[in-house]
Amino acid sequence: MIENKKNWNPLTFEEKRVIIGKGTEIPFTGEFNDHKLFGTYVCRQCESPLYESADKFSSGCGWPSFDDEIPNAVKRIKDADGKRVEIVCNTCDGHLGHVFTGEQFTEKNTRHCVNSISLKFIEKKKRSF
Question: What are the pLDDT digits (tens) for 40-93?
């Protein structure tokens, strides 16, 4: 099991349950499920950038969904049962959720189903000309 390193953000019991213990938050309860602001989603544990808001879409699954990640930000690991693919932060190995392909939700045909509790959001102000 991964330990929370000193330089990473301290985690609550529930955050540890999901991020370190590879748990899942209850669907439709996460703060980022219906979130629509412009910015970057980062790992709650180590704050590495993971997803851009431009890649977020509504899949109706109850968790934030993204059809792409920031290059080299996310690692894919086959679940022990071989049926699903887990996604973790490439920097700290914190559990994010699972990735699915072939569902036809977007042109990229990929859905990163991510626990809100695994993320923090950094809002970016849109430029005005």
Answer: 999 999 999 999 999 999 999 999 999 999 999 999 999 888 889 999 999 999
Active site residue 113: yes
CA distance 5 to 20: 11
Say how far apart CA 32 and CA 70 lie, in whole Å. Answer: 18
The SS3 call for residue 19 is helix
What is the rounded CA–CA span in Å between residue 34 and residue 87?
A: 21
How many CB atoms lie under 10 A from the CB of residue 40? 17
2: helix, strand or coil: coil
CATH class of 13-123: mainly beta
Residue 77: both structure tokens together: 């690991």
Calculate the alpha carbon distances from 39 to 78, 79, 97, 119 in Å. Answer: 29, 30, 20, 12
